[in-house]
Write a structure and sequence with these properties.
Elements lengths: L10 E5 L3 H15 L4 E6 L2 H11 L3 E4 L8 H7 L6 E6 L5 H6 L4 E4 L4 H36 L6 E5 L4 E5 L3 E7 L2 E8 L2 E7 L3 H7 L5 E5 L2 E4 L3 E7 L1 E6 L3 E4 L2 H13 L6
Parallel strand pairs: 1-2, 1-3, 3-4, 4-5
Antiparallel strand pairs: 6-7, 8-9, 8-12, 9-10, 11-12, 13-14, 14-15
């Protein structure tokens, strides 16, 4: 009996024309390799596999190559584009190059080896995790892009991490700090200071923030000028935000910052 797809687990479909081979592979996977795998279906032909793929949208197929009526390569070509990963499980060793040209996760020969299956499942997990990160990053850029497009209509920024989200008024943001390809955002929330690290660059947020309110004082810092409490020189130029955070001002940005504050009638500092 098929299991229900579970988004918190890796959903797998086993395809082999021999019922005993399917049962054996399922037993080894769940008993000796990874009991968290979710076997959503078992198919004994490519026609059955196609039906189950449409029904369950599995993350991966354990796929035999030589089957009646249609081999695995013809099947994958027919159902393209393929939205799942493939681990080939076969008694034939002469298809390996063709399999890897199709970007297969692995190519396992029968009789089955537990260490080989374990390595294959490990590679599968890494690939699925990577694709998930890519999707999340693309989604983050997409959301930010929408906010840039609509920045004249909104004065809020939506922030999310793995466990929380916040909708923040631009005016409540203290500063944004570059951390490699990420950005750390400090802001006021319910009389406290919170921070989120987002998978967008500082330049992305510089484009989004109101030009008369935020200023790039350093390659690593974009500040909300409304929260400046002091500017001073002590060997190097520095700025204080909310009497709590002392940030560097790059030498070439110091005088333009002073002009910016005067032109936009900021009296701080």
């Amino acid at each position: 009996m098929a299991a229900t797809p579970d988004h918190n687990r890796i959903n797998v479909l086993i395809v082999d024309d021999e019922e005993e081979a399917v049962a054996n592979l399922e037993h080894i996977l769940l008993e000796y390799v990874d009991p968290t795998l979710n076997i959503v279906g078992r198919a004994h032909s490519t026609a059955q596999a196609e039906t189950l793929i449409a029904k369950f949208a599995p993350d991966a197929l354990f796929l035999d190559i030589e089957m009646p009526n249609e081999n695995a390569f013809l099947f994958l070509e027919r159902v393209s584009p393929v939205n799942f990963d493939v681990i080939f499980v076969t008694a034939y060793d002469d298809y390996a190059i063709k399999a890897f040209k199709l970007n297969a996760v692995d190519y396992i020969l029968k009789p089955l080896s537990i260490p080989e299956l374990t390595r294959a499942v490990s590679k599968l997990k890494e690939r699925i995790e990577f694709k998930s990160l890519v999707r999340e990053k693309n989604r983050s850029y997409s959301e930010l892009s929408k906010q840039v497009t609509n920045k004249l209509k909104t004065q809020k920024l939506t922030l999310k991490d793995s466990n929380n989200f916040a909708v923040v008024d631009f005016k409540d943001i203290y500063f944004i700090e570059a951390q490699g390809s990420y950005a750390r955002i400090l802001f006021a929330a319910d009389s406290t200071t919170r921070e989120f690290v987002q998978s967008n660059s500082l330049s992305d947020y510089e484009e989004l923030m109101p030009e008369n309110q935020f200023y790039r004082i350093h390659k690593s810092y974009l500040i909300n000028c409304a929260h400046i409490t002091r500017i001073f020189k002590d060997g190097t130029s520095q700025i204080v935000i909310r009497d709590q955070y002392t940030l560097p001002i790059s030498r070439r940005r110091f005088q333009p910052l002073i002009e910016f504050l005067k032109n936009n009638e900021y009296q701080n500092g």
